[in-house]
Structures are given as structure tokens and as C-alpha cells.
Design brief:
Chain lengths: ~425, ~160
Amino acid sequence: MQHHQGAHADAAIRIDEARGRFSVSRAAYTDPALHAAELEEIFARCWLFVGHDSELPKANDFLTRTIAGRPVVFLRDKAGAVRCLLNICPHRGAQVTRQKRGSAKLFSCIYHGWAFENTGKAISIAQAETYHPDFNAAGANDMVPVPRFESYRGLWFLNFDANAVSLADYLGNAREYVDIVMDQAEARMQVVGEVQEYSARANWKMLAENSTDILHVETLHPTYLDLIRTNSEGTIVRGRVQGKSIDLGNGHAVVERVASYGRPIARWIPLWGEEAKAEIDAIFARLVKSYGEERAKRMAYNARNLLIFPNLVINDIMSVTLRTFQPSATDYMEISVWAIAPAEEAGKPAMARRLTNFLEFLGPGGFATPDDIEALESCQRAFAASREAPWNDLSKGLGQAPDATDELPQRVFWLAWRDRLMQRKAT
Amino acid sequence: MTLLANLTRAEVEDFLILEAALLNEWRLEEWRALFTEECRYLVPNTNGDPYAPPESSLYLIADDGHHLTERVKRLGKKTAHAEYPHSRTRRLVSNVRILERAADSLKVESSFVTYRASQGVTDTYFGRHEHCIVEVAGALRILEKRTILDMETLRPQGRLSIIV
Ligand code: FES
Ligand SMILES: [Fe+2]
């Protein structure tokens, strides 16, 4: 079985360096056996984003989430430690809490009333005296935590593989790009409002591909480009994209380029008015003071689309967003998107500008994201013709001088995908 | 302000039915004209407080007059790919109540179900609209429309590419 899937994954990618061609089998987006292998070899082994520190501001705050299909509780315990417990009762499996969010010192199961501290420790078992004395030994009936749970710069990740490398090692070169986003805040970045939850009737890998794909912007998003042309009163003219895509290792990749829109940190556009110009200048001056002219310019004027393999995207574009997508089925993914912003923007016009920027492009009601969803779903529908037309092409830039619109990030993703699916066969 | 002062519930309902009809028929510029020039069209996130200020909380849509005009322009273009070819839509508006009568405005609540069919899939959206209606030059105009979705998430709809 493992062997079969490995061979299958190997055959899913066809590289012809001599002719500059990189192809991916369309079956990789539709095949249930490959989907099952992904759940095992990727989603049960890679670090998966759960949530941001700031979503749990107070002790006892909790949020329930579904990560790679598993129900989890993401919480801050009574002592202030952030934890992630599997949301399943040690008794007979009911969800220990069915609320989306709340504050609770303890969780009490609706089915037979077993109760747990928010550390997961069992504190009450129905009719405990009717069990064998050993049954109630300390720790024997506690809620099960996720095997690994670590954070970087406020971002919490879980890993279902107890033997996984550390999160820091897993992120590797991607950390530099997480830093350049998080460093935009004077103190810390925090989530603004609540997570947007939407979906696409498409395979999850297409959103991984799409999130670092700059090639599609002109063709798929002209109505957004029309909007920013209007907003900038013609001061932003989108020419050839200046920048590059970079392989960060481990399947992570980034596209960094000169932004072609206003950025809350820190590129002013006329729509924001003269008052905002002074504010933006002050933000830029702070960046220069903290990080020097060169890095400040890079932070303020460049945009970044970062993919952390397999399913976290950090977009530092017209606004800063975190995006994950869960592989619910071969042809369906659940998408979650957070807006993050420097804590010091709270209550200031800068925050309103940031949110306007977000909504102009992003989210299910934006001027661009619905068209991305449409494109992905269109691909998924058309993959029904894969038997006769089996290959997707991701060759752009292969063996050529680097360009921001190359399909390099997508190739990086697929090679990591193949390695992950094949590594079990090797061991 | 005589129009507004004497407006009956049934007349308000007629106005909302007209609005829904313009949207069903994709007559979006005429729909935009039902709003005042400066206006708000708000769809709060399915999570969180639907009345949290859009300046400090993440909405799904938080258009001002400028953005609403631009949204209508977008939806009129063949390059608004999510809605071209146009989806087929049907809006049912019901349970209309006048919540507040101020001297120069009415606050009206209605319930809605909107169906959207496209590319072989039919999606349903449901919830309530809250309209703030004013009178401009003897005609009713929408100063603010807040559409509060009752769905828990935008799954499996995946998008709010139409005006629900
Ligand atoms: S399943 Fe939770 S107490 Fe029985
Ligand atoms: Fe896009």
C-alpha cells in the first residue's frame, strides 16, 4: 500500500529539464488514494498552523478548531499557558466542548459528565467509586493533548508526529520572512476581529499554488487593478513586477516584490489624504530608526507572499493576512483567514485603512478573492477530463533568469509534496 | 419628509421588493441609485459581533459610497470572473418590520433567503437585512444596508460575489 502510493506520487510529477518542462498529473488533485496518503504523510507529519497568540487574550479563553480533520481546543489555561488538546472525551468520545469560543476553567462532557481542567486533567468521573481502584490513577483519564505544539513569533502550530523536527528547524529559512512581517509592529502583531471562514470546491493544493502565483494577477484580477488605479488617482501604474520568488527549503517559498498598491506599513496613496501621509511618514521613520534605511524600505515598499508548507500562507501585501486551508476532500477545502495588525494601530485611522485595503482585495466579498475561488473551482471541474488531458504545466521560468512571476514556488511545493509522499517508501 | 413620515409597513416592503427585483435582474446601476451618494453597505463577518465597528473589526464587506459604486462597476464587467457568466439568483424578502421611526429616517428589518445558481451548483444564503432609509428629493433612499448572515460560516458557499 505505502509502496503503491509512493510510486503513484513519483509518477505524478514529470520533469524534462532538457526541454524546460515541469508537469504535474491532474490525478494528484482528484485521486482518493493520493488524498489519503497526503493525510498520512503530510498532514500527520508537518507542522500545521492552529492560531495566533492574540486570539486568546485572557487566561481560560478557548477556541475550537478543526485541523487536518481533527477537532481541537486551542486554549490559554488557568495559569496562562497556551495549549492544544484533542477535543474528544477520554470516556466514549463526545466533543468535550461544542462551543466555537468561550472562557472556561473546566470542560464538562455532556454525555456522562466527566469533567476536566483546562489543562486537560480529569477532575471528575461519573460514579468513580464503581470503577476498579486503579482506574482512577493520576493521568489515566486526562484529555489527550496534540503530540507537539510549538510557537514562533506568536504563531502556534501543532504536529501530529511526536518525532517531528522542532518548529524552528521546520520553518528554517522561512523564519526570516515571518520576522520581516512581525517586525512591522512596534510591540507585537495581533489578530483584528475574528477569522473569516469560507471554502472552495477545489483541491487544497490549488490554493497553495495560487497563494504564491503572481502570474495570474493581471488576467484574473483586472477588476481589482481597476479599483486601485482609481484609488491611487493614477499614481500607481502597474508595470512589469519587480522582484523574485525564492525557494526557502522544506517546501516553503516566498515571492517578494515591489508592491503596486498602498501599504499600511508604509506606502501612502492619495486616496488616504494628506493627514495619513504624515502618519505613514512617521511609521516609515520609525522603521528606519529601528532597522536602518535598507531594511525599512524592504519592509515598507515590498510585498511578500509566503507559503509555509503545506497549508499556511502569510500574505504581507495590501494588508497582512494569515490563511490556512484544510484538506476536507479531494475536491473541497475549508479556508480560514485572519487579518493581523500592529497592536499600536488599535483605534487609529491606520487600522481602518488596513481593513479597507484587506476588503478591497481579500476575503469572500473582496474584489479579487472570489475570482481566485472561481478559477480554482473551474480547474477542479475541468480535471474530470484528466484521463484524456492528464498534465498541468508549471514550467514558467524553469532554467531561466529568475522573475517574480515564475512558477518556481509551485514547483518547490510539488517537489516537497513528492518527497513527503515517497519518504515512507524509502524508510 | 412627508413621504417618510406617512410611510406604511406595506410601502416599505414594496421598496424592499423593488430592491430585490433589481438585484435578481442584475440591474445593478439602478440598484446603486436606490442608495444615497454617501452610504454604507455592510456585511459583518459570520463570527463575532455584527455591530462591531468596521473601522476596527474584520467584516466580509464594508463598502462606503465610493466602494459600492466600484463594486457595481466591477460586477458589470466580463472580467468579474466569479460572476461572469452571471449567476442566476432569487431573493425572497419577508418578515418586514419597521424597527424605528426617527424624524428623518426609518430603520427597517427584513428576513431574506437568497439562492444563487452557477456552474451546476446552487447555494443558499439567509439572514436579515437592516436598512436605514431616508428621503432625498421626495424619494426613498438607502443610507445604510447591513446584511447579517445567519449561516455559521461561508461554507460551502465559499464566496459573497453577489449582493445577497
Ligand atoms: S463520553 Fe464524555 S463522559 Fe462519556
Ligand atoms: Fe489571486
